[in-house]
Amino acid sequence: VQLVESGGGLVQPGGSLRLSCAASEFPIRAYYMTWVRQAPGKGLEWVSSIYRGGSSTYYSASVKGRFTIAKDTAKNILYLQMNSLKPEDTADYYCAYTGEEYCTGPYCSEYSSWGQGTRVTVSS
């Protein structure tokens, strides 16, 4: 099982980036997918999740209205569209997956696997 994030980089405040998480050896359509981030010197922060059906999505208060989680099941890729970026969005972003049986809404008791992360830096 492998999750590979990409799309990070340096962007000015107010800018946009789209992160991708390419999955292999399992179909993302069958699992609950999540984005989390870790800012420099801080702990992990949950960002957004999407149920396998795609109809239910969840966002942290800090990104709601600016970020959009989506998935392309044909390509087996999870996305995070990030708009109106702020310096406080600077972090390493990771994707993860788990079975829905471990989750209630945005809360999951465990995750099966994580990617290696992609760095987002928001700075002028």
Structure keywords:
single chain, 124 residues, mainly beta, 4-stranded antiparallel β-sheet, 52% strand, globular
Apparent shape: globular
**What separation lies between the terminal Cα atoms?**
37 Å
Give the amount of beta strand, in percent.
Answer: over 45%
| Fraction of residues in helix | under 10%
The ordered H/E elements are: EEEEEEEEEEEEE
From the helix content, strand content and strand pairing, which structural class follows? mainly beta
Number of strands: 13
Helical stretch tally? 0
Question: Quick check: average pLDDT?
Answer: 94
Poorly predicted runs are: none
Question: What is the fold's blueprint, element by element?
Answer:
Blueprint: E1 2-6, E2 9-11, E3 17-24, E4 32-38, E5 44-50, E6 57-59, E7 67-72, E8 77-82, E9 91-98, E10 103-104, E11 107-108, E12 113-114, E13 118-122
Parallel strand pairs: 2-13
Antiparallel strand pairs: 1-3, 3-8, 4-5, 4-9, 5-6, 7-8, 9-12, 9-13, 10-11
Protein described:
This protein is an all-beta fold and 124 residues long. Helices cover 0% and strands 52% of the residues. The protein has no helices and 13 strands. It has strands at residues 2-6, 9-11, 17-24, 32-38, 44-50, 57-59, 67-72, 77-82, 91-98, 103-104, 107-108, 113-114, 118-122. Strands 2, 4, 5, 6, 9, 12 and 13 form a seven-stranded mixed sheet that branches. A four-stranded antiparallel sheet has the order 1-3-8-7, with no helix packed on it. Strand 10 (103-104) and strand 11 (107-108) form a beta hairpin. The termini are far apart.
